[in-house]
Amino acid sequence: MTRFVIACASHSDTILASNLERSPLLGTLPLHVERGAPSAAIAYNRALDATTAPVVVFAHHDVFLPQGWETLLAARLAELPDDWAVFGTFGIGLDDAHVGPVWSSSLGTIVGRVPVAPVPVQSFDELLIVLRRDSGLRFDEALPGWHMYGTDIVQTARKAGFGAYAGGLPCIHNDRYPGVLGADFDEAYRFMQRKWAAALPLRTPITNISRSGLHLRWDHWRNRRSAPFRLGMAVGRSSVIYSKLDRLKLELSVSFSWLGEERTHMEASKFSDAQKAFIIKQGEEGTPVAEICRKAGISQATYFNWKKKYAGLLPTEMKPLDQRQPSVTTAPPYPTMPGTARDAFASSSSLLGNRET
Length: 357
Description:
By secondary structure, this protein is an alpha/beta fold. The chain has helices spanning 13-18, 40-50, 69-79, 149-159, 183-195, 214-233, 244-256, 273-284, 289-296, 300-310, 315-318, 339-344; strands at residues 4-9, 31-34, 55-59, 63-64, 84-88, 91-93, 98-99, 102-104, 109-111, 119-124, 128-132, 163-166, 171-173, 202-203, 208-209. The strands form three sheets. A nine-stranded mixed β-sheet has the order 2-1-3-11-5-12-10-6-7. A four-stranded mixed β-sheet has the order 4-13-8-9, with no helix packed on it.
């Protein structure tokens, strides 16, 4: 019996064929696809019932797994403590650190660090979750829609006495430009508030789940304000291509979101190196500083401080990524990853001896 099976819930044959189905490992590992499910939890439980492999890898249809990924997966699982039930390629540590190197086309950069050992986490990004079948865990079908199930399965595992970990398991996420958070995200957030009230606050890759829910309102506001420059950061064909009218709508949504709200500046620490580089580049290309700061939600003092430190540098030069991030020898088919990022993302096999110390 095959030890691993890849499971995917997909609503687009085109995206699936251009990404996950082009991963080299599918020449040796089976892929089970669920279509038409009303929620991620229902889709993934159906996949559990339809397969028998001891380890199930739940992957988004817009994920590409590079050459040798299955070998690295086996090595990573061998490093896990005996109590493990779920493992993720990207998660939020108990100290709120971002763990796990993933190339994101919507951000145009690599996110997550490579730890020296598996790191216990409080939540996963849902792009890829590895589940050990004999743990008996299942996804909660009461959770609506397609959000927060990464956090939910982690908390379910921990409550049952199992371990949930993230580690160095690089992959490529050709996620499209996400726009702003919708009502379906709010619904999932409220569900998690009720279900895990005793465990709050919980940090997810997108927001903090808190008792008050103020973080949700803050993140809605922050997403509206940062929408124009996040759109500019997205790369490749998988990003949604907006017309001038769409961009104008984004600008207007940012402007009108200020009515009745205090214009509180976004914390500078929330920005990635790639975001800082993009903001600085706008200024170098002639965009007025006041306009850049208004859109990004930062003060002009912050902008000029970043410019003094980072002007002229690529995101890969702002931190020694090539010393602590893996790279992929096989470029993603959809879209093609920029050379600078590919250089920073060392071959997956090299990660075995090239992790953060």
